[in-house]
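Suppose a classmate hands you a notebook page containing two proteins, each written out with its sequence and a corresponding row of C-alpha cells. How would you begin to make sense of it? This section walks through that situation. The first entry is reproduced here exactly as it would appear on such a page.
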Amino acid sequence: MQRAALFGGGGDAQMAAGDLGELLVPYMPTIRVPKSGDRVYKTECAFSYDSPDSEGGLYVCMNTFLGFGREHIERHYRKTGQCVYLHLKRHVIEKVPGASGGALPKRRNAKLFLDLETNSDLNSDDFEYEDEAKLVIFPDHYEIPLPNIEELPALVTIACDALLSAKSPYRKQDPDSWEEELQASKHAKTLVQLDNGVRIPPSGWKCSKCDLRENLWLNLTDGSVLCGKWFFDGSGGNGHAVEHYKETGYPLAVKLGTITPDGADVYSFDEEEPVLDPHIAKHLAHFGIDMLQMQVTENGLRDNDIKPRVSEWEVIQEAGVKLKPMYGPGYTGMKNLGNSCYLNAVMQAIFSIPEFQRAYVGNLPRIFDYSPLDPTQDFNTQMAKLGHGLLSGQYSKPPVKSELIEQVMKEEHKPQHNGISPRMFKAFISKGHPEFSSNRQQDAQEFFLHLINLVERNPVGSENPSDVFRFLVEERTQCCQSRKVRYAERVDYIMQLPVAMEAATNKDELIAYELKRREAEAARRPPPELVRAKIPFSACLQAFSEPSNVEDFWSSALQAKSAGVKTSRFASFPEYLVVQIKKFTFGLDWIPKKLDVSVDMPDFLDISHLRARGLQPGEEELPDIAPPIIIPDDPKDRMTNHFVESLDIDDSSVMQLAEMGFPLEACRKAVYYTGNLGAEVAFNWVIAHMEDPDFAEPLVVPAFGEVASSGAAAFGGVGLDNQPPEEMVAIIISMGFQRDLAIQALKATNNNLEHALEWIFSHPELEEESEPALDMMNMVNNTNANVLAETGSEGPRIKDGSGRYELFGFISHMGTSTMSGHYVCHLKKEGRWVIYNDLRVCASERPPKDLGYIYFYHRIPS
C-alpha cells in the first residue's frame, strides 16, 4: 500500500463506513477494551527492543495488548489466530524554516499520543515528532488509518482510544505490581523557593533538630536539613523531615548523598511518593549546589574537593580520559531505569560468557516459538530477548556520518538505536521480590545469586548454563579439645574473600590521612587528598584459608559445648570462578558500611593449593550424634522454654549471611527457622525463600499453639497430609539419620523440627528399620528439593577441573554502601578492556582492576 493511502490521502484506499463495519464484523468478538488491571505494552516488543520509534513500528494486539515488532508479529498471529492489531509509529520530521520563504508543513497529527522518550541527539528547533496509528488486519495486512471515528464501529473506536491512553504497564496498579514508575511532581514546575540566604555546605551535614547524620533530606523550599523515617534495614531517622512538612506545607525534599550529575532522589510529602523533579538542577543551585559539577557522596564529601584520579567515582568511570565509543555486536549499552545499574552490570558480565550465549541466544528461535501466550512473563523468553539485544549489534550502531545526514533528512529521519531499555526484563525478574522490585539501589552480588536461582528453576535445555559457576565446598570442623573432625560439603557459586585490613602496606599513610581528615571535618574545610588502604591479594587469600572460630560449637565427642574451628576448601573448581571482595560490613550500630580499599587483583590466579583433601590419615571423625533437646515436662514451662529458645538467634550466623548482601531481617529469619544450625544451613534457606513476598520483612515469632504450623509454613509445608519440607528433611539427614526416618518423624509432629528430633530419640527401634514403600516418596521429594542444594542421589552438577584462572571481567561499586552509589562493569573482549557504564560503552584506557567488587575468572585449559 502506498504511503499516501496509509495516511488517508489516497482515494483508492478509502472505504465507505458500512464497508469498514462489515470488514471488522468477523473480528469484533476478539477486540477488547483495556480495563484498569490490563497491562498494555504499546512501547516495547515482547521479543525484541523494537518500539514505535523503530523503522517497522510496533504492532499491539487488540485482544492481549502485547506489543510485537515487525519481525515477530507473524509468530503471534500464527500462534493465537488474533487478526486485528493497532500499528503505532513515531516519525521524526525535519522542519521547513518559514523565514526561507516556504511555509511550515501542516501537522497531520497535532497530538503526540505515544508515551515515548524523545531522541536527545536531535535539535528540537530543526525537527518535530509525529505519531501515527492505524489498524492492521491479518493475514492480508489490510490497513485502516486512525482516527476514523465516524467510519469505525463504536467498540473499535473505544478500544483504540483506551489503548492509546493506557498508562505504562510498569506503573504500580495494585500491591503486587513490581515497581512504581516515577512521575514528575505536580509541584516541580511551580515550586516556590525562599530567598533566605541558605547555602548547603559540602560536608558536616546533620539534622537541625536531632543532630543525626544519616538519611538526611534537604527541603527544596527553605533549605532545611532534616532526618527521614526509620527503616527496618537499620537506616533512617526520627521523621523530622515529615514533621517539618506538616508544619510548613513545603512539599519537596531531596536526599543528601544521592545527588549526581544524572539526578537525585526526590520525595513529595504531599503526593506521598518518590517523584521526578525536572528542574532539580535549578532548585539545588538556589542553595549553592551545582549538581552538574560535583558528586555528593553519602558522607557529605564532594568529589571535586578531592584531587583528580583519587575519587573512586572518577577512577572507576575513567573520568578525565577521552574514551573511544564502541559499537556493534557485544558492545550494546543498557539504560539505567533509576538505580538499576546493578542489574546492567551483572547482565553484561553474564552474557559475555559463551555458555549463556549458547543457552539463550543460540536457542532463541526455539525459545520464542515455544514461549507461552504471554512471553513477557516467561524467564527464558526474556533472557533470550536481553541476550539478543546485547549481542546482535542491532541496537548498537555508530552515528550516521555527517556527509549522509543531509541526504537522510530530506526523506525522514531514521534514528539510530543506541542501547536497550531492560524495563520488561526487570519487571519480570524482580516481580514479587521486596528489594529488586523497588527503585532503590541493590547489591550486585545478591542480584547475581537471585539470577542464578531463577536460571536453576527455569531449565532451558539439557545443560544448565549456571553449571559453570557451581562448585563444592568442603568444610572441615574440628573440636579443639578432642581434636576430632567432621567433614561436610555444600554447594556455592561465589568465592568470598575477606579484606585483610591488618595487612595494609601503607599503614603510616593511612594514620596520617585519618588525622588530617578529622581536622578538616572539625574545621569544615575540604578533606585532604584521599589515601586508600593497599591490601595485597595474597593476604586476602590467606585470610580465606585460615581457620575460623565456630560460635557456640557443640562437640558430639564431648557431648557438650566446646571450642571449635572451621576451615573451607574447594572440593571442586568451577569453570568460571566468581570472586567477591567483602568490602561491605556492618558497624556496631548494624549500619552497612563500605571499606574503601585497593586490592592488587591478579590477571592470572592459581588456587590449586586450596583443593580439598578429605579425611586424612590419623584424623578421627566426630560421632554422628545430635545435640540433646531438653523440653520440660510442664506444658507451661514448655511454652516459656520455646519462646526463650525461639528468640535466641545466633548473631554470628546472621552476620555471616548479612555480609553476603542479604537483607538483615531475612538473615535473622533464616537462622531462626533452621534452628541455629549454622550459616551454611541458613544460606540454603535464604536461597530457597528469596522469592517469598515477606522475604525481607521483620521476623514475627509465632504464638504458642501456632508453633508447628508456622514453622512448617516457613519451610513451605502446609499440613500433615503433605510431604515434609525438604529443608527440614535435609537438616535431620545432616545429623546422621536416615531419610525415611526423618520424613516419618516430621509427619508425626506436624513438620516441627524440634519435636521431630525428640520423636526420633524416643523411637530408637525405628532407626534400623527400612521402609521400601518410601522409595517413591523420596523420588517425589527430590523433585521438590532446593534447586541449589540439589539433594538428589546423583548430587549437584559440577564442572571440576584445574584451579588456574584468568581474569576477564569485574564489576565495581562507587558509594558508601550497597543501598546507594553506582555500578560499572569492565569486560575483556577481543584482547582489550571495555567499560560498560549503563548506556555508555567505550574502550577502557585505565581499567581500575584494584577497585573492583566482583571479579570474573575463566579456567585456563590445562
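The notebook's second entry, a different protein, reads as follows.
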Amino acid sequence: MTEFAVLASSITHEDIAQALVSGYGPTETPILKLIKESRSKGYEAACVPLTTVNWRERWRDMCILPSAGDAGSGKIAAAEKQAETWRRAPGFVLDEVTISRLDEAEGVVGMISDWLQLDSTDDWVRHDSEIALRQELAYASYLNVLTVILPPPRNRVHVASYARAINECLKSTPYIQFSIRLPIYDPAVFQPKQSPARRSTDSFSSVASSPTPRSAPKLVIPGSSSSARTGRSAKAPEGELNATWEMWDIIRTLCDYNTRLTLTLDLTPPLPSNLGVLSRWSAEPVQHIFLPASTFIANVKGYPVLPKGTQSFIRDSMTHRPTIILSGTNHGVHSKGGESAYAQYVRYLEKTSQSVQAARQAGTVEHFAQGYQDYLQTPLQPLMDNLQSITYQTFEQDPVKYRNYEEAIYRALVEWPETERIVICVAGAGRGPLVARSLNAIQRSRREASVYAVEKNPNAFVTLQGRKEKEWGDSVELVFGDMRQIDVPEQADILVSELLGSFGDNELSPECLDGAMRFLKADGISIPSSYTAHLAPLSSSKLFNEARANKDLKYMETPYVVMFQNVSILSGDGGGAGGRCGSQVQECWEFEHPRKDAVVDERGLPLTNSHNVRFSTLSFHIPHAGILHGLAGYFEAVLYGDIGLSIHPHRKDQVSKDMLSWFPLFFPFKDPLYLPSNSELQVSLWRLTNQRQVWYEWYAESFLPVFSPPLPTDKSEDPLGSDGSFFACSSTNVAVPSPLIDAVDVFPHPEKMETRRVDQSPKQDVGIVKIGQTALHNPGGRSSWIGL
C-alpha cells in the first residue's frame, strides 16, 4: 500500500561526531553510515546539515566584531582583510562541510546553517549572512542536492530583507527547491539576544542577534517586551501566531509566489492552544513538517503520543503527502517504545486519517479524484460543443447521482394522481443513463408510463439508437435536436434533465430548460425543481500559481472546475460589525423550474434572457488573517421532495455523499488581497447575459470594524492595554479607530436607543472602514463566457 507521508530522520552534528568515534567501514563515510542506519530503521529520507561548526567559527571570526578590550586593532584589521578576501571569493575548506561526495548527497535534504541571520538588525551581519547563504547554496548545487531547508526568519522588522535575499538566491540558483523552516510557538520564548557588533571600521553600530541553536529558532516580534511576557501562559495568542504567518506571507509575496519556495512547518513546542488557527497552513505549500521528540507527550504507559490537537493537524496534513522530519528520537525523551515508537505512531496517524482512508476506499470522491486535486479544468460548453463519449463515460461512473435521480423519479411517479398513462421526457439524454433510470423507476412504481429522450449530439444519438434497439424497445421514443428549437410529439408530465454545473447554472441549465419547459404540462413536474449557487472566500497559493502560470489576463478571469485540496476557507460563521456577516458558505441565488416570470413568444420561448440575470452581494467575517486568492463556488439542487444533490461542503454528506460528478468552481483573483484578523469581506458577483453569451463578473472589498469612542467616564482604562500594545486584543471583534480615518460608516441600530441606566457603560457605535479592494474581474465577459 502506497504511503502518503515520507518519513525522514534528522541527522545532527552530534550524530556525525558519534559516527566518527564509533568508526565505519573502509568504503563508508560517517554520513553514509548514518544514512544507511536511518534507512534500516524505516526512514525514507535524511536531513543533513551541510556545514560543520568549523565553518560557523570561521564566519564569526571574520564577521563579528569583538569588544574593544578583547582584541587589538592589529588583530581586527587582519580579520577585516580575511573577511574581504572571503567576500570576493567565498568558499569552504574540507573540514567545514559534512558532505563531499555525490553518493553521500543522494536523496539527502540539505540543512542550510541555521545561525545565518538574513534579517539581523545589523546591516553588515545581514550582508555577510547573504554571502554565506549563496556560498552554501552553490555547494549544495555542486553536490546535486535537490532540496534545502533554510533557516527561519527571526525578526519581523527586517523580514523584508530576509525575503529579498531569498528571492535573489532563487534567481541565481536554479533547480534547487527552497523550504523555509518556520516555527509555530509561544512568543514567550522569543527572547532577542544581543551579540557583539560586527567587525567594521565604518559607522555601523547596531547589534545583531546571536546565532541560535538548531532546536529552537527564535522570532522577534515588535511589541513583545520581556516585561509584558513575564507571567504569560505557554500558549501563543492568535495575534502572535499571525505574526509568524505574516512573515511567511511577506517572504512568498516578495518572492512572487515562486513555486520552488515551500515551507517546513516546525511543530516544536509549545504549540498554540487552538490548532484551528493553523488551518490557514492548509492553503500553503507545506513540503515538510518538523516534528521533534519533545513535541510528543507520554501516554499512561509511557509511550510517546501527540496531543489531540496536534494529532488532528497531522492527520489532516496527510492528504498533502508531506515529508515528516523526526528529530531527537534517539535521545530517550520517553521511557517506553524506543526510537522506533515515534515513526510507528506517525504511521498510525496516517492509517487513521479520514482523508487517507477515503482516498484508499473505492467509490469515494477522494479516491475518484486522485490526480485531479488542485488541477484547473475549464468548465464544459454543453451548448456550443458536443461531448466526447469518454466524457459521458466519466460522468456515468457516478452511482450516487443516478441513484438519487431514480429515487426522485420514483417518488414523483408514486405521488402522481392515478391516470391511464404518465409521460416522462428526458431533456439532454446523452448516452442514456437517465433514460435507463427512468425505466427502472417506472418498473418499481408499477405505473404505466412512456419515455421520450431528447438529444442534440448526433454522435451520442447513435448510442441512444443502439440502446433502444437492444434494451428499451418501444418503451422509449428518441427525438433528435436542440431542446430549445424542436417540438416533441406530446407534452410531458415529468421533465427530467441533468444540465447542472459546479455552480448550478454555469453550464446554462436555466437557458436550456427555458426552451424545454414547452414540453411540460401546466401541472407537470421538473426534476430538478430548483438549484442554488453558494460562495465562500478561499486562500490557496497553489491555485493562484496554477491560474497565473499562463501570463495572459484571461486565465485569471476564468472560473475553473477544481477538486480542492491545498485550500483554506477564510470565512467564519457569523460575526462582523453588528453581527451583519453571514455563514461561512453563503447562498448567492436560486433558479426554479418550471418558472413563471419569463415573457414568452407564441412558441413558448423567452423573448430575451434577461430573466436569468442575477446579482448577489455577500458579507463574510474573516476571523483569522489570511490572503484572498479567489472564491469557492458550490451548488445544491432539489430533485423532487427531499431528494437532492449537493457539493456544499457542510451538507454534501447528508444529501449525496460520495457523489463524483461535480467538483467545486474556483473564481480566481489576479492580485491577492490581504485580510487581517476580524476583518470583513464583501463579495459582489454578477451573472450577466446578452443574446449570444452568459458570463460572470466578480469583485471584492475588505473592511475593518471600528467604533466611535464613548464619552469619558469615571472608570478609566489604559488605552495601550496590559501588554502595552495599541492593537485590540485577539478576542475582540472590533479594532481601535485609526488616526487616519476621517469618516466612519456607522450602521444604524434597528432598535431605538433605550434610556441609559446610571450604572450602564456608554454604548459604542460600531461601523466599518474600507481597507482594500480587488479589480472587477471579467467585465463584459471579455475573458470567459458560456456560449448560447
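A careful reader of the second entry would note: The CA atoms of residues 53 and 96 lie 7 Å apart.
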